[in-house]
């Protein structure tokens, strides 16, 4: 089982790697749920760590609905990210009626080149998660980050399992995140048939997004999940 951890600073990224995590999701604006980080931060981090770095592409926190002006910014950010050593991007878009915005998604996929693509938790705001999975399976998406529509993924294991069945059949990885911590991760991985988990505040001191990475928590999580690693 693979562990991805959110980083918002260079120090966090270095601490995440040294603690044994497998991948970084790089964001800024953690209070807003994650926004596109500066190109300076991206370049510094991808040149300072060896583990893969997935970069959030989200131009604002108003919603996951993007107009043509937003799309221009999104595509320009992706072009610049492609010039770095980033492993991939994290992106999601919805229409005004909370369906997957396929037109925007197609343009992002066209722009991303060889970058890996994670469709993020915008899916959790969509009107029907199974419907959304059946749409996303048709696109060049490597993984989907989801809490299965709940504030905490531990509360939606049954729906998560249904989503994962679709993902597995279509060679997509379901990345389970939101609400995971060192007290519930063992029970979660016992019940949920997923191969990757995503942590944010759950590996920070006091489970607080605005505090530093707690290396011991990452080590505990890795120890718990290693028996599931393929």
Please write out the topology.
Layout: E1 2-7, H1 10-18, E2 23-26, H2 39-46, E3 53-56, H3 68-82, E4 88-91, H4 102-112, E5 116-119, H5 129-136, E6 143-146, H6 157-169, E7 173-177, H7 185-191, E8 196-199, H8 215-225
Describe this structure in words.
This protein has a single domain, classed as Alpha-Beta Barrel (TIM Barrel), CATH 3.20.20. 36% of the residues lie in helices and 15% in strands. The chain is built from eight helices and eight strands, in the order βαβαβαβαβαβαβαβα. Strands 1-2-3-4-5-6-7-8 form an eight-stranded parallel beta barrel, surrounded by six helices. The radius of gyration is 16 Å and the shape is globular. It starts with a strand and ends in a 5-residue tail after the last helix.
Give a quick rundown of the structure:
With 230 residues, the chain is α/β, with parallel strands linked by helices.
Average pLDDT, rounded to a whole number, is: 96
Give a quick account of the main beta sheet: strands, pairing sense, barrel closure: 8 strands, parallel, barrel
* CATH structural class: Alpha Beta
CATH topology-level fold name: TIM Barrel
Distance between the amino and carboxyl termini? 6 Å
As residue ranges, the low-confidence spans are none
What is the number of beta strands?
Answer: 8
CATH superfamily: Copper homeostasis (CutC) domain
How many distinct helices? Answer: 8
GO molecular function: copper ion binding
Protein name: PF03932 family protein CutC
Keywords: Cytoplasm
Family: Belongs to the CutC family.
């Amino acid at each position: 089982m693979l562990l991805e951890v959110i980083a918002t600073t260079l120090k966090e990224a270095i601490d995440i790697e040294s603690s044994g995590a497998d991948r970084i999701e790089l964001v800024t604006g953690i209070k807003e749920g994650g926004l596109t980080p500066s190109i300076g931060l991206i370049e510094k981090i991808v040149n300072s760590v060896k583990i893969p770095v997935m970069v959030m592409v989200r131009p604002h926190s108003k919603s996951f609905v993007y107009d043509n002006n937003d799309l221009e910014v999104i595509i320009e950010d992706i072009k610049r990210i492609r010039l770095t050593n980033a492993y991939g991007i994290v992106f999601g878009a919805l229409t005004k009626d909370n369906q997957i915005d396929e037109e925007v998604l197609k343009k992002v996929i066209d722009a991303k080149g060889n970058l890996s693509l994670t469709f993020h938790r915008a899916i959790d705001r969509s009107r029907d998660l199974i419907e959304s999975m059946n749409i996303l399976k048709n696109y060049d998406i490597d993984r989907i980050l989801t809490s299965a529509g709940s504030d905490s993924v531990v509360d939606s294991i049954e729906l998560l399992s249904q989503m994962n069945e679709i993902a597995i059949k279509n060679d997509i990885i379901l990345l389970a995140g939101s609400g995971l911590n060192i007290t519930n991760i063992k029970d979660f991985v016992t019940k949920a048939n997923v191969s990757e988990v995503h942590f944010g505040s759950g590996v920070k001191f006091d489970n607080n997004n605005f505090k530093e990475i707690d290396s011991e928590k990452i080590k505990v999580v890795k120890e718990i999940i290693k028996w599931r690693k393929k």
